[in-house]
Amino acid sequence: MPMVTVSISPQQAAGIRAAVDNGGYASSSEVVREALRLWDTARKLNEFRDDILDDDAPSGGRCVADMFADHEAERRRSA
């Protein structure tokens, strides 16, 4: 698998560590891969929305961080 180095904030690093420490993920790489899958899905949904809505439609997009937080909350509720 290709390796990529990125810089993240201390808060983001703490969130990743907490997700692993809480047992929701096996590794920090797993957390980042899931976050990237969510980002990719959001990007594709936004492209789809842009294709079907006219330019005057209000934007209902959410940032990936919010989507990930909601996803994590749902994972905790269902665990």
From TrEMBL:
Entry-linked Gene3D superfamilies: Antitoxin ParD1-like
CDD domains (UniProt xref): RHH_NikR_HicB-like
Transmembrane segments: none
Keyword DNA damage: no
Alphabetical list of SUPFAM superfamilies matching this protein: Ribbon-helix-helix
Keywords per UniProt: Toxin-antitoxin system
Protein name: Ribbon-helix-helix protein, CopG family
Species the sequence originates in: Rhizobium ruizarguesonis
